[in-house]
């Protein structure tokens, strides 16, 4: 009987040890992050270096952008019961940025589940943007596989030295020299990243406009959409649609300027308008101050009609202004 108990105790220790080891994130994790947007090939080849002490984790995310290696410091927590890794917001280069020098950083948070098996461990999850960028920055889904031969190297580091420098591992360097990476890197070079265009400033592409209102009156209004809405008060947000390339706009509502010359970005330009119910239609026009570095001037308009949200793509040039016609929906008579 005692022999049976001893065997069971040894088995329990072995199982506990395996579970404990399987729930330790110390090490290097490799994989590709896939941007969740249709018809695009921009992905992130990445290495996540993690140090762990109890629930706390810290380290760095190394990734290739275009032809440059960059990294961000990360920190967060790991719940051993749920096997959920949570990363606090950290800066990540916006996937449509034309170059490293002209890049835009987005704050991304991470949510991953640890999947451990006899063949190895994986972190499966995604990076998500903050509230301000949720309509322009898509999620990035990752599957990261643990490299067991680097785990001991990380575990040798002092656990409290969060500021200790992190170095890209030898396996990661080898991965970047592999044929698989060469194929992927070709897809990372955006077809819109023409150097000759990107090196031009907006003033080189577009003549300077001295009087926006007079220029607006001379351009045609290109009807984009006719809409009925439930509320008289509408909240509008304008984002750059695509690569952030110095597009600047003004917004006119019923021929009155409600947003002065402003640069589009991944942070919204916010405007609130009040419908004139005496008019058959209210007109909202986006006037292009310039064409940016990549013509035409395009924007994503997020229109809030109470709790209802609409996404509308607008495109203006130096001859016409994208225009919406809006009117309040008439109540249904019983």
Summarize the structure.
This protein has 334 residues and is an alpha+beta fold.
Present the secondary structure layout.
Elements: H1 2-22, E1 27-35, E2 43-53, E3 56-65, E4 68-79, E5 84-93, E6 105-117, E7 120-129, E8 140-147, H2 148-155, H3 170-176, H4 179-188, H5 195-198, H6 202-205, H7 212-218, E9 220-229, E10 233-240, E11 248-253, E12 256-263, E13 269-274, E14 282-288, E15 297-305, E16 308-316, E17 320-328
Parallel strand pairs: 9-17
Antiparallel strand pairs: 1-2, 1-8, 2-3, 3-4, 4-5, 5-6, 6-7, 7-8, 10-13, 10-15, 11-12, 11-14, 14-17, 15-16
Task: Characterise the protein shown here.
This protein is an alpha+beta fold and 334 residues long. The protein has 2 domains: 160 residues, Lipocalin; 127 residues, Immunoglobulin-like, CATH 2.60.40. Helix content is 18%, strand content 46%. The strands form 3 sheets. Strands 1-2-3-4-5-6-7-8 form an 8-stranded antiparallel barrel. The longest helix is centred in the N-terminal third of the chain and has 21 residues.
Oligomer: single chain
Shape: elongated
Termini gap: 83 Å
- SSE order, as H and E? HEEEEEEEEHHHHHHEEEEEEEEE
| CATH topology-level fold name of the largest domain | Lipocalin
Indicate the CATH class of the largest domain: Mainly Beta
Helical proportion?
A: 10-25%
Please mark out the parts with pLDDT under 50 across 5 or more consecutive residues, or reply none.
4-21, 150-173, 180-207
Mean pLDDT: 76
For the largest beta-sheet, the strand count, sense and barrel status come to:
8 strands, antiparallel, barrel
Instruction: Determine the CATH superfamily of the largest domain.
Output: Quinohemoprotein amine dehydrogenase alpha subunit, domain 2
Counted by DSSP, the helix tally is 7
Q: Structural class given helices, strands, pairing?
A: alpha+beta
The overall number of domains is 2
**Any idea what the radius of gyration is?**
26 Å
- Give the number of DSSP strands: 17
Beta-strand percent range? over 45%
Query: What strand order characterises the main sheet?
Result: 1-2-3-4-5-6-7-8
**CATH architectural arrangement of the largest domain:** Beta Barrel
């Amino acid at each position: 009987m005692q022999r049976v108990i001893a065997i069971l105790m040894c088995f329990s220790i072995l199982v506990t040890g395996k579970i404990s080891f399987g729930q330790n994130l110390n090490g290097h994790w490799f994989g590709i992050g896939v941007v969740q947007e249709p018809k695009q090939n921009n992905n992130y080849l990445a290495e996540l270096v993690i140090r762990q002490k109890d629930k706390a984790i810290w380290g760095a995310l190394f990734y290739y952008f275009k032809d440059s290696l960059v990294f961000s410091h990360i920190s967060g927590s790991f719940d051993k019961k749920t096997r959920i890794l949570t990363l606090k917001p950290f800066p990540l280069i916006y996937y449509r940025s034309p170059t490293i020098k002209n890049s835009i950083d987005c704050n991304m948070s991470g949510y991953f589940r640890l999947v451990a098996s006899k063949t190895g461990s994986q972190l499966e999850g995604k990076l998500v943007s903050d509230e301000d960028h949720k309509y322009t920055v898509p999620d990035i889904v990752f599957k990261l596989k643990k490299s067991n031969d680097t785990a001991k190297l990380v575990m040798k580091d002092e656990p409290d030295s969060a500021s200790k420098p992190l170095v890209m591992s030898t396996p990661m360097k080898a991965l970047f020299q592999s044929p698989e990476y060469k194929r992927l890197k070709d897809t990372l070079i955006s077809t819109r990243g023409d150097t000759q265009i990107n090196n031009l400033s907006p003033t080189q592409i577009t003549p300077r406009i001295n009087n926006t209102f007079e220029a607006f009156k001379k351009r045609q209004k290109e009807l984009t959409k006719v809409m009925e809405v439930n509320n008289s008060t509408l909240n509008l947000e304008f984002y750059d649609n695509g690569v952030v390339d110095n597009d600047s706009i003004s917004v006119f509502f019923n021929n009155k300027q409600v947003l002065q010359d402003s640069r589009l970005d991944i942070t919204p330009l916010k405007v609130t308008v009040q419908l004139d119910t005496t008019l058959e239609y209210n007109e909202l026009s986006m006037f292009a101050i310039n064409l940016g570095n990549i013509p035409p001037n395009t924007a994503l308009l997020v229109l809030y009609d109470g709790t209802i949200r609409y996404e509308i793509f607008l495109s203006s040039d130096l001859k016409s202004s994208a225009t919406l016609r809006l009117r309040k929906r008439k109540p249904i008579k019983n």
